[in-house]
Please model this.
Amino acid sequence: MTVRPILSIGHPTLRVRAAEVDPETINSPEVQSLIDDLIETMHDANGAGLAANQIDEPVRIVVMEVTSNPRYPYKPPLPLTVAINPIIEPLDDEMVEINEGCLSVPLRGNVQRHVNIRVQYLDRDGVEHDEIKRGLTAGTWQHECDHIDGKLFVDRVEDPSTLATWDEFNEFHRDAFVERITAFVERVGS
Ligand code: NI
Model:
């Protein structure tokens, strides 16, 4: 396992639609070691998720995990998940405004995300999954799946005045956001 450099906004690889992974290759040493590197790099950076194109590998693989995360202490737990060729489908029109950050962007900002989604993906053993995700967990899925479509959260920020550095977010906006989003998490349960 290797901690790989994470690309920053402006790097062209972050802006391409990443290629599908041939399911026949999931068991190969190349794909398995890429998955290990993604997990290692996500852990090293205290990320809640990481997409393969963020480490300059434009293929449709994302990893996610939330335990007790110092970057996002209000996020509910999300067990380590490897999603290959993920597909997301909103289940209804319910939206929530989430203040997001990203390991490829030095800012946070408010974006609208679907609250209830269906996800279909292959795991690192090639096993098919078809699951419902809700709340902030659904938000994390949407953020990571945007990456492999070449999108960054800043593309979805409708009000640029919500953009803030981490320091300024912590000083001026964090308390109100955490209060609102904690009530939301308690309501939807994830
Ligand atoms: Ni990101």
